[in-house]
Write a structure and sequence with these properties.
Elements lengths: L3 H20 L4 H25 L3 H29 L8 H19 L1 H4 L3 E9 L2 E8 L1 H28 L1 H26 L10 H18 L20 E6 L4 E4 L1 H7 L10 H4 L3 H4 L7 E4 L8 E10 L5 E10 L1 H5 L8 H8 L5 E5 L6 E4 L1 H6 L4 H4 L4 H4 L11 H8 L3 E6 L5 E10 L5 E10 L1 H15 L9 H12 L6 E8 L2 H8 L1 H18 L5 E4 L4 E7 L3 H16 L10 E7 L6 H38 L4 H18 L3 H13 L9 H4 L7 H8 L1 H10 L8 H6 L20 H17 L9 H10 L7 H20 L1
Antiparallel strand pairs: 1-2, 3-4, 3-7, 5-6, 6-7, 8-9, 8-12, 10-11, 11-12, 13-15, 13-16, 14-15
Helix pairs in contact: 1-2, 1-8, 2-3, 2-8, 3-4, 3-6, 4-6, 6-7, 7-8, 20-21, 20-28, 21-22, 24-25, 24-30, 24-32, 25-30, 30-31
C-alpha cells in the first residue's frame, strides 16, 4: 500500500491548521507566513489526490488545481524573507505584482496544457520505490518556472541567513540550523526533476517544504522571531491611558496600544515594521532605558510632553526577546511647575537647572532668603554673597524698594503679580511674583521669578523703529510723516510748512552703476537734508526718489533759505558717481486749507521747478559723463573732433538731414558711454585681453544702451549705441544683427571709427597709412561694413585727396 498520499494529505492539513493559528496574530510577518502555509497546504493536499486518481484525466485535473500552491510558495517565501530582514520598503505594490506575473502565467499554462503541452509534454506509467505511478514528462515552460523559483528562494534564504548571522552570536547557531533545514526541499525537488522514476513519479517537495515550514514556525514561536505575545491586551492595555509599545530584539514593532498610536501619530499598518523607519521621533526614543526621560512631541506652541521609559522583556529560557516602552503624558504636570515651588524638593530640582533668576523672600523687608545660581550670575556674584541682601540693592542699585514692586504687592494682596523692569545696566526683566501660603492660608513668603527679556525688548524697539523709519536712509517713513502732519495741522498756534525734494538722475545712476550706487545717492541726499535742516524739523522719505520735510514755526523766507542751503550743499558734493541735483518745492499752510491741498501745492511747485531746471540738470550730467568718458577712453577731445569732422563730411556725402547729423555727432561723443562702468584696469590694459576681460568689454554696448534710455537727450541714439559693434555679416555683438537691420548711424560710426583707429594706431597695432586704411576698409566691405557705405566713404576720401592735391 502506498502511504505517500496519506502523509501528504496529513502534512497539508497540519500546515493549514498552523497557518490559521498564526494568521490570527495579525502582524505583517504572521500573515505572510500564514499565506505561505496555505499555499503549501493546497500543494500537498491536491498532490495527494493526484497520486490516488485512477485516470490520467483526473491526475491532470488535480495537478492543475494544485498548481497555484506550487508556483506561489516560492514567491510568498521570498516576500517573507524580505519583510523579516527589514527590506519591506523595497517591496512596493508594483514590484510585488511584477514578481507574481510569471506564477500567474504558469497557472494559466497548467490550465491550458492540453492545448500546447509546454508544461507537461506527456504522461507515462512508471515503477519505483512507491510502486507503480504516473510520470509527468516536463515541457520547456517547466524549466523556466524552476529557474525562477530557485532564484527567488536562493535570494530569500541568502538575505535571511545574512540577517541572522550578523545580528548576534546567539542567532548564528539557529541560522545554521535553518540553513540545514532549507537544503532538504532542494534535494527533494532535484530528485524529482532528474530521477522521477525513483519515487514512482511522486514529488517529495511539498512534503519536505511543508515540514521545513512547520519547523520554522516552531522556531518562530520558540525564539520569538515574529512577535511577542501581548498580555491581556483586549481587557487591559487597550483601555489604559498609558501608551505601550512592544518591540522585538531587532526593534521591529510587535504590538502597540491605541494611546501610544495617538502619542506617536502612527497608523494601524505599522505592525512588523522597523521602529526607526516608522516612528518620526525614534532618534529621541532609541537611547531610552529604565530611567524615565521627558520627550516633547509638540511644535513651537502646542507642546505635548511624555514621560518615557523602557523595560526589557525576558523569555521563558531567560533570554532577552524584546522590550516594552511605556509612555505617560505629563503635559499638565509640567504646566503647573511653578506650583512645585511649594516644596523644598521641587525647589532644589528646578533651581539648579533654570536659566531664569529665582529668589525667595520670607518677609516684606525684601531680604533674599535663598536664590538660584542664575540669580547670582546675573549680578556677577557668588550665590552665598547675595543671600541676606535686599533685592533692590543688588539688582537696581537703590537704597529703598522700587516703585510698583511686585513682591511687596504680592505680600499685600496675596495674588500673583507681573511687571517689566529695566536695570541700570540696560537689561530688562519680566518679573513674576507668587505667594507661598502656610497651613492657615497665611502668606509665609513670596517667590520671584525673573525672565531676561532684553533681547525681545530690543527686538520690539527695533521693530517699532522700522515701523516709523526708512530702512535705507534712517529717516522717518511716509506713514510716520503723515501721522505727524495730521497732529500738527490741527494746531492753530503753530505755523507749519512743507518742503518736497526730488532727486534728479536716480534712474540713470541705477541703470549705469547699479542699484547699490543709487542707494548711496539716496543716502547722500538724506545726509544733506540732515545737515541743512533744523534739529526740530521732521525729515522723511516720501517715495522712491522723493524726500519731504515738515517744519513748524516757519515762514516763506525760512523755506527759501533752506532751499538755498540744500542747493549749495549739492554743489559742494563730491559728484560721485554723478553730480547731485535736487529739485525743491515748498508751501506754507493756509488758514482754511486742507492737508491734501497743502501737499498738492507743494508737489506742483516741485514738479514745476523740476521742469524748469530739467534741461540744465540733464546737460550738467551729460557734460560730467562726457568728461569721465574722455578720461577713461583712448579717444581724447582732438580725436573726437576729428571723427566729428569726418562724420559730418560723410553725412553730407550721404545726404543726411540736419537732425540725423546732430544725432550722428551725439553718437560720436557717447557711443562708448557704457565703458564708464568697466574697470579702468581693463580699459587701460596694454597687453592682450583675457577671454573674461573681453567679455566684460563687450558688455559696454548694452550698458551704454541702458544709460542712454535713461536720458531724454540720449534716448534717440540708444539703439545705435547698442548696435555700434554689430557687423554687416551678422558676426558682431551683442545681438548678431546683420545687413540693414543694423541702424544706419551705427553702420556709419563703424566705418568712421575704424578708419580713425587705423590711422591713429592702438596699443595692439601700429598706425596704418591712409592707403592701407582704405584698403582695409575695402576688404571688410560686406563682412564688417555696409558695402554701399564703404563705396561712398572711399569716394569721399578720394575726393579729399584730390582737393589736397589741387590746393
Amino acid at each position: 500500500m502506498n502511504y505517500f498520499p496519506i502523509i501528504l494529505q496529513t502534512t497539508g492539513i497540519i500546515v493549514f491548521t498552523f497557518g490559521l493559528i498564526i494568521w490570527n496574530r495579525k502582524s505583517l510577518l504572521s500573515r505572510n507566513l500564514a499565506l505561505l502555509a496555505f499555499a503549501l497546504a493546497l500543494w500537498s493536499i491536491t498532490d495527494s489526490f493526484l497520486y490516488v486518481s485512477p485516470s490520467l484525466k483526473y491526475k491532470i485535473y488535480w495537478a492543475a488545481i494544485g498548481y497555484p500552491g506550487s508556483q506561489f510558495s516560492p514567491v510568498l517565501l521570498f516576500f517573507f524573507f524580505f519583510n523579516f530582514t527589514g527590506l519591506e520598503k523595497l517591496l512596493t505594490r508594483k514590484r510585488m505584482i511584477l514578481l507574481c506575473i510569471l506564477p500567474v502565467i504558469s497557472v494559466a499554462m497548467a490550465a491550458t496544457n492540453s492545448w500546447h503541452h509546454w508544461l507537461w509534454a506527456s504522461l507515462k506509467e512508471t515503477e519505483g520505490w512507491f510502486g507503480s505511478g504516473t510520470l509527468f514528462v516536463h515541457g520547456p515552460w517547466f524549466w523556466v518556472e524552476v529557474i525562477y523559483s530557485y532564484t527567488l528562494i536562493g535570494v530569500g534564504v541568502f538575505l535571511y541567513l545574512r540577517f541572522l548571522i550578523k545580528s548576534s552570536k546567539e542567532f548564528s547557531l539557529k541560522a545554521r540550523q535553518i540553513l540545514t533545514l532549507s537544503i532538504f526541499p532542494f534535494f527533494g525537488h532535484l530528485l524529482y526533476i532528474f530521477y522521477p522514476e525513483a519515487f514512482s513519479g511522486c514529488d517529495l517537495t511539498p512534503l519536505i517544504f511543508g515540514a521545513v515550514v512547520l519547523i520554522f514556525i516552531w522556531f518562530s514561536f520558540r525564539y520569538q522571531y515574529i512577535d511577542l505575545v501581548p498580555i491581556a491586551r483586549a481587557t487591559l492595555i487597550d483601555n489604559l491611558e498609558v501608551g505601550f509599545l512592544f518591540l522585538d530584539i531587532f526593534n521591529r514593532i510587535v504590538d502597540i496600544n491605541p494611546k501610544a498610536k495617538n502619542f506617536l501619530n502612527l497608523t494601524n499598518s505599522i505592525i512588523g515594521k522597523s521602529a526607526e523607519n516608522s516612528i518620526p521621533i525614534w532618534s529621541k526614543l532609541e537611547q531610552i532605558s529604565n530611567d524615565p526621560i521627558i520627550v516633547d512631541l509638540g511644535g513651537n506652541k502646542n507642546h505635548i510632553y511624555l514621560s518615557v521609559y523602557s523595560s526589557p522583556v525576558i523569555g521563558k529560557n531567560g533570554s532577552y526577546i524584546g522590550k516594552v516602552m511605556v509612555f505617560n503624558e505629563i503635559t499638565e504636570q509640567l504646566k503647573i511647575k511653578e506650583a512645585w515651588l511649594k516644596t523644598e524638593q521641587e525647589k532644589s530640582l528646578i533651581l539648579q537647572a533654570m536659566s531664569d533668576t529665582v529668589a525667595y523672600y520670607n518677609s516684606p523687608n525684601l531680604t533674599i532668603s535663598w536664590a538660584n545660581p542664575a540669580a547670582a550670575i546675573s549680578v556677577n556674584r557668588k550665590l552665598d554673597e547675595i543671600s541676606g541682601l535686599h533685592c533692590y540693592e543688588i539688582w537696581h542699585q537703590r537704597s529703598e524698594p522700587c516703585e510698583e514692586c511686585p513682591v511687596l504687592k504680592t505680600f499685600t494682596t496675596g495674588q500673583k503679580q507681573t511687571i517689566e523692569k529695566e536695570t541700570p545696566d540696560g537689561l530688562t526683566f519680566e518679573l513674576h511674583s507668587y505667594p507661598v501660603f502656610g497651613n492657615q492660608n497665611k502668606i509665609i513668603g513670596v517667590v520671584e521669578i525673573g525672565y531676561d527679556v532684553t533681547i525681545r525688548k530690543n527686538f520690539e524697539k527695533r521693530m517699532r523703529y522700522f515701523s516709523f523709519h526708512d530702512a535705507l536712509t534712517g529717516l522717518y517713513n511716509r506713514a510716520y510723516f503723515e501721522e505727524e502732519l495730521k497732529r500738527l495741522f490741527g494746531s492753530r498756534e503753530i505755523q507749519i510748512g512743507i518742503l518736497l525734494a526730488d532727486v534728479n538722475g536716480l534712474k540713470l545712476v541705477n541703470d549705469a552703476f547699479g542699484h547699490q550706487a543709487g542707494d548711496l545717492l539716496l543716502k547722500r541726499v538724506a545726509d544733506i537734508l540732515r545737515l541743512t535742516c533744523r534739529k526740530e524739523d521732521l525729515i522723511a522719505r516720501w517715495g522712491g526718489d522723493e524726500f519731504i520735510v515738515l517744519l513748524a514755526n516757519i515762514n516763506i523766507e525760512n523755506l527759501k533759505e533752506l532751499e538755498k542751503r540744500i542747493q549749495e550743499a549739492c554743489l559742494k558734493d563730491n559728484n560721485e558717481p554723478v553730480p547731485l541735483s535736487i529739485s525743491v518745492g515748498y508751501a506754507i499752510k493756509e488758514k482754511r486749507g486742507t492737508i491734501e491741498e497743502l501737499l498738492k501745492i507743494t508737489e506742483e511747485r516741485m514738479y514745476r521747478k523740476k521742469l524748469d531746471e530739467g534741461p540744465f540738470n540733464r546737460q550738467r550730467i551729460l557734460d560730467y559723463l562726457e568728461d569721465i568718458l574722455e578720461k577713461i577712453s583712448r579717444e581724447n577731445g582732438k580725436q573726437i573732433e576729428n571723427m566729428n569732422i569726418l562724420s559730418n563730411a560723410f553725412a553730407q556725402e550721404l545726404g543726411l538731414s540736419e537732425h540725423e547729423k546732430k544725432q550722428l555727432n551725439l553718437l560720436i561723443r557717447f557711443h562708448d558711454l557704457g565703458k564708464i562702468t568697466i574697470s579702468q584696469d581693463i580699459i587701460n590694459k596694454t597687453t592682450e585681453l583675457t577671454p573674461e576681460e573681453w567679455e566684460s568689454i563687450k558688455k559696454h554696448s548694452e550698458i551704454g544702451y541702458r544709460i542712454a534710455n535713461s536720458s531724454p537727450e540720449l534716448a534717440p541714439i540708444a539703439e545705435a549705441i547698442l548696435a555700434h559693434h554689430e557687423r554687416w555679416n551678422g558676426q558682431g555683438y551683442p545681438q548678431n544683427l546683420e545687413g540693414e537691420k543694423i541702424p544706419l548711424l551705427a553702420r556709419i560710426l563703424a566705418i568712421v571709427e575704424a578708419y580713425d583707429v587705423m590711422l591713429r594706431g592702438s596699443s595692439y597695432k601700429t598706425p596704418l597709412t591712409e592707403k592701407q586704411a582704405c584698403q582695409e576698409i575695402q576688404d571688410q566691405a560686406g563682412y564688417q561694413f555696409d558695402p554701399r557705405l564703404v563705396e561712398n566713404f572711399l569716394k569721399l576720401i578720394q575726393q579729399a585727396k584730390l582737393k589736397k592735391v589741387a590746393e
